[in-house]
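Hello,

I think I submitted the nicotinamide-adenine-dinucleotide job twice by accident. Can you confirm which output corresponds to this input? Input:
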Amino acid sequence: MRGLSGKAGVIAGGGRGIGAATATRLAEEGAAVVIGDIEGEWAEATAARIRDAGGRAIGLGFNICDPASVGELVQTCLESFGRLDYFHANAAGGTQGDIDALTIDLDTFDRSIALNLRSYLICTQAAVPAMLERGGGAMLYTSSGAAYGGAPWQVAYPVAKNGVHALMRHVAARYGKQSVRANVVCPGLVLTEAAMEHLNEDYREAGLKRAASPRLGEAKDIAAMATFLMSDDAEWITGQVISVNGGMAMRD
Ligand SMILES: NC(=O)c1ccc[n+]([C@@H]2O[C@H](COP(=O)([O-])OP(=O)(O)OC[C@H]3O[C@@H](n4cnc5c(N)ncnc54)[C@H](O)[C@@H]3O)[C@@H](O)[C@H]2O)c1
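Support: Only one job matched these inputs. Its output is below.
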């Protein structure tokens, strides 16, 4: 992909799954990557695999809910690689007890919003100033088909992910003239470690039935789009929610 060689950025939530696959693809395309994860050992292991393959990567433990911790990721990127061209806010979680609007307790709701939405504002506040100073950059946020699925079994997570869409559109509109792009990648059902842990076989089978594709997603499917959106090939793409879902939902 065009324009990634020599660039550098951060994957926030890249210890495994979609984030790790995106870090790996970015490195294959020649970009340096700082990988942060609450599971610091996962982040370090992903970075070590990238370095063993000849790429440039640093893995660090961090907490996406803590502004100082997110700031350290950006600082590490600037100090180690001299620039911040892209930032991918990807971490998520906190779905336990998130069942429906009448049973969810407010603490569970607040925790989900903090981890799945407020944290992405924290990422924006940490990354965009460095991009503005350099003359531009690419923000990418991971959402979910759950944002528009209308699922009856979950409330806070889709609310948070819809908020991410609004945050992304704001960033795209507010900083676009200063060459900061912002987009959302919206995965369908992707067979990551987390999906295998949390979703049972019936759910996966139902997902496959809904898909137009003969298979469910793999982390590399999302990584390819994420990497493209952070490359110069996507320099005229901003303010968009891009679904990568094997046709599980078809939208204009
Ligand atoms: N797998 C799917 O089917 C699917 C579908 C739709 C959307 N998504 C989205 O894709 C993204 C990645 O999902 P995944 O399937 O790879 O799951 P995952 O849970 O493996 O990835 C999230 C990563 O974030 C890290 N993390 C969690 N809390 C953190 C915190 N407080 N601070 C820092 N890191 C933290 C986790 O340790 C993990 O490595 C998420 O935003 C998720 O909502 C996934």
